[in-house]
């Protein structure tokens, strides 16, 4: 049997040997091209001394690339127990460097990941299962305390979602709640696209790798108020804010005109014209006003 450059069997053979037919319900679109998984791993930056958290290693294509690139440790969270024997084979090849957690990444306590990383800085790198990609990103962006438990996210999304993450008020069609959350807490940028043909089975859409680097000091605000504010503002995105935010302000006893003026926002502006830090400032004043007796 011929071996791949990392000394392990080629991924297609591993998938065949373990009967890992891809399941749609688990968002399984596998990458078999080790050049491509190498490119994604390199995008996560120099990995020496770094602990990588990978969601959904599947048969281990990206996992192998991360280990080959020198990650001190890979902590891989996989929901599909069928993948565990294939991952055990990789763990045996790189003794002490791959820890597999069987479970749902949405429910794993970050404290557990921090304990396993044992002091090494954590980065998250994954070809995310598309069905839970956005909820996972929101969880990581809403992490408390801040700065978060990770120093960088390098993640593959459907291109349409990637564009909604990195959008600014200059890209109105894509700019919305997700971009406000991402832009407030992180510096987000699109790194490169990956064609559907790179996956097995190929999805219907192009994918993109996105990098998010947490801001050390995002504009202070109240997270819950920010979420309610952007829900109200983008819920009526074509309307001027003086109309779209009437209910939000009324429910909190805010003088709408005064509140917007304090944050330097014109009542005739629309949600898609307001950048993330301005939304954060609006939410901060709203939360402060709501606390007044
Ligand atoms: N990393 C592999 C690759 O690039 O070929 C597989 C990526 S595939 C798009 C997504 C993987 O996430 C699958 O292995 C799937 O079983 C796993 N997965 C799906 N939902 C999950 C969840 N909630 N928690 C952890 N893993 C999950």
Show the helix and strand layout.
Blueprint: H1 11-17, E1 30-31, H2 34-43, E2 51-55, H3 61-68, E3 73-78, H4 84-93, E4 98-102, H5 110-117, E5 122-127, H6 133-141, E6 152-158, H7 159-166, H8 177-185, E7 186-194, E8 199-200, E9 207-214, H9 223-235, H10 241-244, H11 246-251, H12 256-262, H13 276-291
Parallel strand pairs: 2-3, 2-5, 3-4, 5-6
Antiparallel strand pairs: 1-8, 6-9, 7-9
S-adenosylmethionine (SAM) binds at residues 26-31, 55-58, 61-62, 77-80, 83, 104-106, 127, 129, 132.
Keywords, separated by commas or semicolons:
alpha/beta; 293 residues; 9 strands; binds S-adenosylmethionine; 13 helices; Rossmann fold; two-stranded antiparallel sheet; 7-stranded mixed beta sheet; 39% helix; Helicase, Ruva Protein, domain 3
How would you describe this protein?
The mean pLDDT is 96. The strands form two sheets. The chain has a seven-stranded mixed beta sheet with strand order 4-3-2-5-6-9-7, with helices on both faces. Strands 1-8 form a two-stranded antiparallel sheet. Helix 2 packs across helix 3, helix 8 (177-185) packs across helix 13 (276-291) and helix 9 (223-235) packs across helix 13. The protein folds into two domains: 11-214, Vaccinia Virus protein VP39 (Rossmann fold), CATH 3.40.50; 223-290, rRNA adenine dimethylase, C-terminal domain (Helicase, Ruva Protein, domain 3, Orthogonal Bundle). Helix content is 39%, strand content 17%. It is built from 13 helices and nine strands. The chain binds S-adenosylmethionine (SAM). The site of S-adenosylmethionine has 23 residues, from strand 1, helix 3 and strand 3.
